[in-house]
Task: structure prediction
Amino acid sequence: MSLVVFPFKTEKPEVVVNNIDTAASHERVSEVLCVGVEEEQTYAAIAAAAPHVTAETGTPVNLILQDRIGSLRPGKGDGMNTALLYFLEKSDAARIHFYDSDITSFNQSWITKAEEFADLGYDVVRHYFPRAATDAMITWFITRVGFAVLWPRSELPWIEQPLGGELLMTREVAADLLADEAVRAQSDWGVDTLYTFRMIQNGAKMFETYVKEGKAHKLYGRLTDLRTMLVECFAAIQSLENETVDGTTLHRVQPPDVVPSAISEKLGYDIEASMSLLTERWTPRQEELAGFFPVPIRDGLLANLQRPRFGFLDESAWFDTYLVLLSEFDKDDPDWQELIFKLWIIRVLNYTTTAAARGYAYGMRYLRSMVERYLRQAALAK
Ligand code: DGY
Result:
Protein backbone atom coordinates (compact mmCIF):
# COMPACT_ATOMS: atom_id res chain seq x y z
CA MET A 1 0.00 0.00 0.00
CA SER A 2 1.04 3.60 -0.52
CA LEU A 3 1.17 6.92 1.25
CA VAL A 4 0.12 9.90 -0.89
CA VAL A 5 1.56 13.31 0.03
CA PHE A 6 0.30 16.75 -0.96
CA PRO A 7 2.65 19.54 0.05
CA PHE A 8 0.78 22.88 0.05
CA LYS A 9 1.08 26.59 0.77
CA THR A 10 -1.86 28.88 0.14
CA GLU A 11 -4.02 27.18 -2.48
CA LYS A 12 -7.66 27.11 -3.46
CA PRO A 13 -9.08 24.89 -0.67
CA GLU A 14 -11.71 23.26 -2.90
CA VAL A 15 -9.00 22.10 -5.36
CA VAL A 16 -6.83 20.63 -2.60
CA VAL A 17 -9.73 18.94 -0.81
CA ASN A 18 -10.93 17.44 -4.08
CA ASN A 19 -7.44 16.04 -4.74
CA ILE A 20 -7.24 14.62 -1.21
CA ASP A 21 -10.58 12.92 -1.73
CA THR A 22 -9.43 11.50 -5.09
CA ALA A 23 -6.31 10.03 -3.52
CA ALA A 24 -8.06 8.73 -0.38
CA SER A 25 -10.60 6.86 -2.54
CA HIS A 26 -7.90 4.97 -4.44
CA GLU A 27 -7.67 1.27 -3.54
CA ARG A 28 -3.86 1.33 -3.31
CA VAL A 29 -3.73 4.28 -0.90
CA SER A 30 -3.53 3.53 2.82
CA GLU A 31 -3.04 7.13 4.00
CA VAL A 32 -3.03 10.70 2.69
CA LEU A 33 -0.63 13.19 4.25
CA CYS A 34 -0.92 16.96 3.72
CA VAL A 35 2.16 18.99 4.59
CA GLY A 36 1.59 22.71 5.12
CA VAL A 37 3.93 25.63 5.69
CA GLU A 38 1.89 27.49 8.29
CA GLU A 39 -1.57 27.43 9.84
CA GLU A 40 -3.32 29.70 7.34
CA GLN A 41 -6.68 29.41 5.60
CA THR A 42 -5.84 26.45 3.35
CA TYR A 43 -4.57 24.57 6.40
CA ALA A 44 -7.80 25.36 8.27
CA ALA A 45 -9.94 24.22 5.33
CA ILE A 46 -8.06 20.90 5.08
CA ALA A 47 -8.30 20.41 8.86
CA ALA A 48 -12.06 20.88 8.63
CA ALA A 49 -12.51 18.56 5.63
CA ALA A 50 -10.09 15.75 6.62
CA PRO A 51 -12.35 13.93 9.13
CA HIS A 52 -15.17 13.78 6.55
CA VAL A 53 -12.91 12.39 3.84
CA THR A 54 -11.54 9.83 6.33
CA ALA A 55 -15.08 8.80 7.35
CA GLU A 56 -16.28 8.47 3.76
CA THR A 57 -13.30 6.63 2.31
CA GLY A 58 -11.94 4.76 5.34
CA THR A 59 -8.49 6.16 4.53
CA PRO A 60 -6.81 8.29 7.21
CA VAL A 61 -6.09 11.84 6.07
CA ASN A 62 -3.44 13.50 8.23
CA LEU A 63 -2.27 17.08 8.29
CA ILE A 64 1.11 18.32 9.57
CA LEU A 65 3.33 21.39 9.28
CA GLN A 66 6.74 21.07 7.70
CA ASP A 67 9.72 20.77 10.05
CA ARG A 68 12.85 22.86 9.82
CA ILE A 69 15.20 20.18 8.52
CA GLY A 70 17.50 21.99 6.10
CA SER A 71 19.88 24.90 6.29
CA LEU A 72 18.92 26.95 3.22
CA ARG A 73 15.78 29.09 2.73
CA PRO A 74 12.90 27.17 4.36
CA GLY A 75 10.77 26.12 1.41
CA LYS A 76 9.69 23.16 -0.68
CA GLY A 77 12.68 21.04 0.38
CA ASP A 78 11.73 21.13 4.06
CA GLY A 79 8.20 20.13 3.05
CA MET A 80 9.29 17.13 0.98
CA ASN A 81 11.90 15.99 3.49
CA THR A 82 9.34 16.26 6.31
CA ALA A 83 7.11 13.92 4.31
CA LEU A 84 9.96 11.44 3.74
CA LEU A 85 10.71 11.44 7.46
CA TYR A 86 7.05 10.79 8.26
CA PHE A 87 6.95 7.99 5.68
CA LEU A 88 9.99 6.24 7.14
CA GLU A 89 9.16 6.72 10.81
CA LYS A 90 5.38 6.88 11.15
CA SER A 91 3.98 4.87 8.26
CA ASP A 92 4.38 1.27 7.15
CA ALA A 93 3.37 1.94 3.54
CA ALA A 94 5.72 0.42 0.96
CA ARG A 95 5.70 3.43 -1.38
CA ILE A 96 5.29 7.19 -1.20
CA HIS A 97 3.71 9.38 -3.90
CA PHE A 98 4.06 13.17 -4.15
CA TYR A 99 1.60 15.39 -6.04
CA ASP A 100 1.37 19.17 -6.20
CA SER A 101 -1.83 20.10 -4.38
CA ASP A 102 -3.01 22.82 -6.81
CA ILE A 103 -3.45 20.61 -9.89
CA THR A 104 -6.95 20.80 -11.28
CA SER A 105 -6.42 17.92 -13.74
CA PHE A 106 -5.38 15.39 -11.06
CA ASN A 107 -7.30 12.11 -11.13
CA GLN A 108 -6.98 8.51 -9.91
CA SER A 109 -5.25 7.31 -13.06
CA TRP A 110 -2.14 9.25 -11.99
CA ILE A 111 -1.86 7.04 -8.91
CA THR A 112 -2.75 3.87 -10.85
CA LYS A 113 -0.10 4.53 -13.49
CA ALA A 114 2.62 5.12 -10.92
CA GLU A 115 1.61 1.96 -9.03
CA GLU A 116 1.57 -0.18 -12.17
CA PHE A 117 5.11 0.73 -13.15
CA ALA A 118 6.32 0.30 -9.56
CA ASP A 119 4.72 -3.19 -9.70
CA LEU A 120 6.99 -3.89 -12.68
CA GLY A 121 10.00 -3.35 -10.45
CA TYR A 122 10.92 0.32 -10.90
CA ASP A 123 12.10 2.05 -7.73
CA VAL A 124 11.08 5.51 -8.91
CA VAL A 125 8.19 6.45 -11.19
CA ARG A 126 8.02 10.06 -12.32
CA HIS A 127 5.15 11.65 -14.21
CA TYR A 128 5.93 13.98 -17.07
CA PHE A 129 3.54 16.24 -18.92
CA PRO A 130 3.21 18.14 -22.15
CA ARG A 131 4.22 21.74 -21.44
CA ALA A 132 4.06 24.84 -23.64
CA ALA A 133 7.15 25.54 -25.75
CA THR A 134 7.84 28.67 -23.67
CA ASP A 135 7.08 27.02 -20.30
CA ALA A 136 9.63 24.98 -18.30
CA MET A 137 12.37 27.51 -19.03
CA ILE A 138 14.35 26.67 -15.86
CA THR A 139 14.06 22.97 -16.64
CA TRP A 140 15.45 23.45 -20.16
CA PHE A 141 18.03 26.22 -19.79
CA ILE A 142 19.30 25.55 -16.28
CA THR A 143 18.69 21.97 -15.18
CA ARG A 144 18.81 19.92 -18.37
CA VAL A 145 21.67 22.03 -19.73
CA GLY A 146 23.57 21.63 -16.45
CA PHE A 147 23.04 17.86 -16.44
CA ALA A 148 24.24 17.69 -20.07
CA VAL A 149 27.30 19.85 -19.46
CA LEU A 150 28.40 18.18 -16.22
CA TRP A 151 27.32 14.54 -16.61
CA PRO A 152 26.99 13.98 -20.36
CA ARG A 153 27.46 10.20 -20.11
CA SER A 154 24.82 9.69 -17.44
CA GLU A 155 21.03 9.38 -17.70
CA LEU A 156 20.59 12.79 -16.05
CA PRO A 157 20.25 14.94 -19.21
CA TRP A 158 17.67 12.47 -20.56
CA ILE A 159 15.24 12.95 -17.70
CA GLU A 160 12.17 14.65 -19.09
CA GLN A 161 11.16 16.83 -16.17
CA PRO A 162 13.87 16.71 -13.52
CA LEU A 163 12.12 19.42 -11.48
CA GLY A 164 8.73 17.70 -11.53
CA GLY A 165 6.94 17.27 -8.23
CA GLU A 166 4.79 14.28 -9.21
CA LEU A 167 6.59 11.07 -8.40
CA LEU A 168 6.57 7.75 -6.58
CA MET A 169 9.46 6.13 -4.73
CA THR A 170 10.01 3.02 -2.65
CA ARG A 171 11.08 2.96 1.02
CA GLU A 172 14.65 2.09 0.02
CA VAL A 173 14.93 5.15 -2.24
CA ALA A 174 13.39 7.39 0.43
CA ALA A 175 15.79 6.04 3.06
CA ASP A 176 18.80 6.64 0.80
CA LEU A 177 17.68 10.22 0.16
CA LEU A 178 17.05 11.05 3.77
CA ALA A 179 20.37 9.54 4.88
CA ASP A 180 22.12 12.06 2.63
CA GLU A 181 23.29 15.22 4.35
CA ALA A 182 23.10 17.38 1.20
CA VAL A 183 19.52 16.28 0.54
CA ARG A 184 18.45 17.11 4.09
CA ALA A 185 20.17 20.52 3.86
CA GLN A 186 18.37 21.41 0.61
CA SER A 187 15.30 23.06 2.10
CA ASP A 188 14.60 25.32 -0.91
CA TRP A 189 13.58 24.88 -4.59
CA GLY A 190 16.83 22.98 -5.18
CA VAL A 191 15.34 19.88 -3.58
CA ASP A 192 13.98 18.45 -6.85
CA THR A 193 17.43 18.68 -8.42
CA LEU A 194 18.98 16.92 -5.43
CA TYR A 195 16.37 14.15 -5.40
CA THR A 196 16.70 13.54 -9.15
CA PHE A 197 20.49 13.63 -9.02
CA ARG A 198 20.85 11.24 -6.07
CA MET A 199 18.29 8.80 -7.46
CA ILE A 200 20.35 8.39 -10.62
CA GLN A 201 23.67 8.47 -8.76
CA ASN A 202 22.41 5.79 -6.35
CA GLY A 203 21.28 3.63 -9.27
CA ALA A 204 17.52 3.65 -8.62
CA LYS A 205 15.58 2.09 -11.51
CA MET A 206 13.53 4.93 -12.95
CA PHE A 207 10.46 5.03 -15.19
CA GLU A 208 8.87 8.19 -16.55
CA THR A 209 5.19 8.01 -17.46
CA TYR A 210 3.50 10.46 -19.81
CA VAL A 211 0.34 12.12 -18.48
CA LYS A 212 -1.32 13.54 -21.54
CA GLU A 213 -3.95 15.71 -19.88
CA GLY A 214 -1.10 17.84 -18.58
CA LYS A 215 -0.74 19.63 -15.33
CA ALA A 216 -3.29 22.40 -15.17
CA HIS A 217 -2.26 24.85 -12.48
CA LYS A 218 -1.52 28.53 -11.86
CA LEU A 219 0.39 30.37 -14.61
CA TYR A 220 3.38 32.69 -14.39
CA GLY A 221 3.38 36.34 -15.50
CA ARG A 222 6.65 38.21 -15.63
CA LEU A 223 9.58 35.88 -15.30
CA THR A 224 10.20 37.59 -11.93
CA ASP A 225 7.88 34.99 -10.42
CA LEU A 226 10.59 32.43 -11.15
CA ARG A 227 13.61 34.41 -9.93
CA THR A 228 14.09 32.65 -6.60
CA MET A 229 13.48 29.26 -8.19
CA LEU A 230 16.04 29.99 -10.88
CA VAL A 231 18.74 31.04 -8.41
CA GLU A 232 18.10 28.04 -6.14
CA CYS A 233 17.96 25.51 -8.99
CA PHE A 234 21.21 26.77 -10.48
CA ALA A 235 22.90 26.83 -7.05
CA ALA A 236 21.81 23.21 -6.52
CA ILE A 237 23.50 22.13 -9.77
CA GLN A 238 26.60 24.12 -8.87
CA SER A 239 26.78 22.42 -5.45
CA LEU A 240 26.98 19.02 -7.20
CA GLU A 241 29.56 20.07 -9.77
CA ASN A 242 32.39 17.89 -8.45
CA GLU A 243 30.34 14.72 -8.06
CA THR A 244 30.58 11.77 -10.41
CA VAL A 245 27.74 9.71 -11.81
CA ASP A 246 28.21 6.51 -13.78
CA GLY A 247 26.30 5.77 -16.93
CA THR A 248 24.65 2.48 -16.05
CA THR A 249 21.36 3.39 -14.37
CA LEU A 250 18.20 1.87 -15.80
CA HIS A 251 15.94 4.69 -16.99
CA ARG A 252 13.01 4.25 -19.33
CA VAL A 253 10.67 6.87 -20.70
CA GLN A 254 7.16 6.26 -21.98
CA PRO A 255 6.91 8.00 -25.37
CA PRO A 256 4.86 11.20 -25.47
CA ASP A 257 1.34 11.09 -26.87
CA VAL A 258 -1.10 13.77 -28.00
CA VAL A 259 -0.56 17.34 -26.84
CA PRO A 260 -3.80 19.20 -26.10
CA SER A 261 -4.06 22.48 -28.05
CA ALA A 262 -4.64 24.34 -24.78
CA ILE A 263 -0.99 23.48 -24.03
CA SER A 264 0.61 23.74 -27.47
CA GLU A 265 -0.99 27.15 -28.04
CA LYS A 266 -0.27 28.54 -24.59
CA LEU A 267 2.29 31.27 -23.92
CA GLY A 268 4.47 30.31 -20.99
CA TYR A 269 5.20 33.86 -19.81
CA ASP A 270 4.56 37.53 -20.55
CA ILE A 271 7.20 38.49 -23.14
CA GLU A 272 6.88 42.27 -23.02
CA ALA A 273 6.88 42.46 -19.22
CA SER A 274 9.93 40.20 -19.07
CA MET A 275 11.81 42.28 -21.64
CA SER A 276 11.40 45.39 -19.55
CA LEU A 277 13.25 43.68 -16.67
CA LEU A 278 16.48 43.73 -18.65
CA THR A 279 17.11 47.45 -18.28
CA GLU A 280 16.13 47.57 -14.59
CA ARG A 281 18.06 47.13 -11.35
CA TRP A 282 21.58 47.46 -12.75
CA THR A 283 24.38 48.26 -10.26
CA PRO A 284 28.02 49.24 -10.94
CA ARG A 285 29.06 45.89 -9.45
CA GLN A 286 26.93 43.94 -11.95
CA GLU A 287 28.70 45.84 -14.73
CA GLU A 288 31.98 44.73 -13.19
CA LEU A 289 30.88 41.08 -12.89
CA ALA A 290 29.95 41.12 -16.58
CA GLY A 291 33.70 41.22 -17.16
CA PHE A 292 33.93 37.50 -16.25
CA PHE A 293 32.22 36.56 -19.53
CA PRO A 294 33.83 36.35 -22.99
CA VAL A 295 33.89 39.79 -24.65
CA PRO A 296 30.93 39.36 -27.07
CA ILE A 297 28.75 38.10 -24.20
CA ARG A 298 29.91 40.87 -21.88
CA ASP A 299 29.20 43.52 -24.51
CA GLY A 300 25.80 42.06 -25.37
CA LEU A 301 24.87 41.92 -21.71
CA LEU A 302 25.97 45.49 -21.03
CA ALA A 303 24.01 46.76 -24.04
CA ASN A 304 20.96 46.02 -21.88
CA LEU A 305 21.81 49.04 -19.77
CA GLN A 306 20.31 51.04 -22.64
CA ARG A 307 17.64 48.82 -24.15
CA PRO A 308 16.66 45.12 -24.20
CA ARG A 309 19.11 43.11 -26.35
CA PHE A 310 19.02 39.34 -26.63
CA GLY A 311 20.15 38.36 -30.13
CA PHE A 312 23.69 37.62 -28.94
CA LEU A 313 22.88 34.88 -26.44
CA ASP A 314 22.43 31.91 -28.78
CA GLU A 315 23.00 28.24 -27.99
CA SER A 316 26.76 28.36 -28.24
CA ALA A 317 27.09 31.57 -26.22
CA TRP A 318 24.88 30.02 -23.51
CA PHE A 319 27.28 27.06 -23.23
CA ASP A 320 30.16 29.47 -22.54
CA THR A 321 28.01 31.56 -20.21
CA TYR A 322 26.99 28.48 -18.26
CA LEU A 323 30.61 27.44 -17.71
CA VAL A 324 31.50 30.89 -16.36
CA LEU A 325 28.47 30.80 -14.07
CA LEU A 326 29.48 27.38 -12.75
CA SER A 327 32.83 28.70 -11.65
CA GLU A 328 31.96 32.28 -10.62
CA PHE A 329 28.32 32.48 -9.51
CA ASP A 330 27.75 33.13 -5.81
CA LYS A 331 24.21 32.28 -4.74
CA ASP A 332 24.36 34.56 -1.69
CA ASP A 333 25.49 37.63 -3.61
CA PRO A 334 22.53 39.84 -4.69
CA ASP A 335 24.45 41.17 -7.71
CA TRP A 336 25.18 37.68 -8.98
CA GLN A 337 21.53 36.75 -8.36
CA GLU A 338 20.41 39.67 -10.50
CA LEU A 339 22.98 38.95 -13.19
CA ILE A 340 22.09 35.27 -13.60
CA PHE A 341 18.44 36.30 -13.71
CA LYS A 342 19.11 38.80 -16.50
CA LEU A 343 21.27 36.32 -18.44
CA TRP A 344 18.60 33.64 -18.19
CA ILE A 345 15.85 36.05 -19.37
CA ILE A 346 18.07 37.02 -22.30
CA ARG A 347 18.57 33.37 -23.23
CA VAL A 348 14.84 32.64 -22.87
CA LEU A 349 13.94 35.64 -25.07
CA ASN A 350 16.52 34.59 -27.65
CA TYR A 351 15.05 31.07 -27.79
CA THR A 352 11.47 32.41 -27.83
CA THR A 353 12.08 34.66 -30.81
CA THR A 354 14.28 32.29 -32.83
CA ALA A 355 12.83 28.83 -32.13
CA ALA A 356 9.52 28.92 -30.21
CA ALA A 357 8.26 31.60 -32.63
CA ARG A 358 8.34 28.92 -35.35
CA GLY A 359 5.65 26.93 -33.58
CA TYR A 360 5.23 24.33 -30.85
CA ALA A 361 6.66 21.36 -32.75
CA TYR A 362 9.73 23.28 -33.89
CA GLY A 363 10.34 24.73 -30.42
CA MET A 364 10.18 21.33 -28.72
CA ARG A 365 12.38 19.68 -31.35
CA TYR A 366 14.86 22.48 -30.90
CA LEU A 367 15.00 22.09 -27.09
CA ARG A 368 15.51 18.33 -27.26
CA SER A 369 18.21 18.52 -29.88
CA MET A 370 19.89 21.38 -28.00
CA VAL A 371 20.36 19.13 -24.95
CA GLU A 372 21.80 16.41 -27.20
CA ARG A 373 24.23 18.83 -28.84
CA TYR A 374 25.36 20.09 -25.44
CA LEU A 375 25.99 16.64 -24.06
CA ARG A 376 27.98 15.62 -27.13
CA GLN A 377 30.03 18.79 -26.89
CA ALA A 378 30.64 18.25 -23.17
CA ALA A 379 31.50 14.56 -23.63
CA LEU A 380 34.12 15.47 -26.24
CA ALA A 381 35.70 17.95 -23.85
CA LYS A 382 35.87 15.48 -20.90
C1 DGY B 1 10.42 24.87 -14.87
O1 DGY B 1 11.24 25.45 -15.55
O2 DGY B 1 10.18 23.66 -15.01
C2 DGY B 1 9.65 25.60 -13.82
O3 DGY B 1 8.58 24.83 -13.37
C3 DGY B 1 9.10 26.88 -14.35
O4 DGY B 1 8.26 26.68 -15.42
The pocket of (2R)-2,3-dihydroxypropanoic acid is lined by residues 135-139, 163, 226 (CB under 6 Å). Strands lie at 2-7, 29-36, 61-65, 95-98, 124-128, 167-170, 206-210, 251-253. The chain has two domains: 2-263, 271-381. The longest helix spans residues 360-381.
